[in-house]
Design a protein that fits this description.
This protein is an alpha+beta fold and 130 residues long. 22% of the residues lie in helices and 37% in strands. The protein contains three helices and six strands; from the N terminus they run H-H-E-E-H-E-E-E-E. The longest helix has 13 residues.
């Protein structure tokens, strides 16, 4: 019996497309599709504030969010591009408010023209709790 594979959506070719590409890949439920949006030595900053680096660690950090099995919605607030680097400030929400925050992310256009996360800080613009 042949197995079918789902082709992930294309990687973003414009900085403005990164948040929507993340949401589409996240909502597919495919951790590999999500992982492809990160540079090899990217950093992911969870709500603890301690960054993790590399594919395996970032996949592990994203895992609990994917495991919720709920869709993510994203609303870009600001996208600032300087050459091959972009700063993204994005409001996001998983489910109907199960988890929500404002991300402060950095993306870079690579040699093949695709934009990927260099730094993903999903709670980066969230107020600090006392």
């Amino acid at each position: 019996m042949p197995t079918s594979t789902v082709t992930p959506p294309p990687l973003p070719t414009r900085a403005e497309e990164v948040p929507a590409a993340f949401a589409e890949r996240f909502n597919s439920g495919d951790p590999e599709a999500v992982r492809e949006l990160y540079e090899e030595r990217a950093a992911f900053v969870p709500d603890t504030g301690t960054a993790v680096h590399g594919s395996a660690e970032i996949a592990a950090a994203n895992g609990p969010f994917l495991a919720l099995g709920l869709p993510i919605s994203v609303t870009p607030r600001h996208v600032h591009v300087a050459g091959e680097i972009a700063l993204l400030v994005v409001d996001w929400e998983i489910g109907d408010g199960v988890v929500r925050s404002t991300a402060t992310d950095v993306a870079r256009r690579g040699a093949h023209g695709y934009w990927r996360y260099v730094i993903d800080s999903p709670f980066g613009a969230a107020p600090v709790s006392p």
